[in-house]
Amino acid sequence: MHKLWTAFKKNLQQTTSSIAFIPAIFAISGLLFAFFTITIEYDERVIDLKENIAFLLIDNQEDGRVVLGTLVGSIISLMVFSFSMVMIVLNGASSNLSPRVLPGLISNKPHQLILGIYLSTIIYSLIMLVNFQSDREYVLPSLGILIAMILGVTCLWLFIFFIHSISKSIQVESIIESTFNDTMVQLEKYGLKERQFEDKIPDFAHWDKLCVETAGYIKKISIGKIIELTEKYDFQVVFRKHIGSFLVKDYPFLQISNTSQLSNDVIAELKSCFTFYPDDQITDHYLFGFKQISEIGVKALSPGLNDPGTAIKALDLLSVLFIRRMEIYEPLYEIVPSGKISIIYFPVSLKELIFQNLIPIRTYGKGDVTIMLKMLEVLKNMIYADSEKREYHQILVQTVKSVIQAADTAIENQLDREQLNELITIIEEKLDGIDQLDRLVI
Question: Global pTM?
Answer without folding.
Answer: 0.73
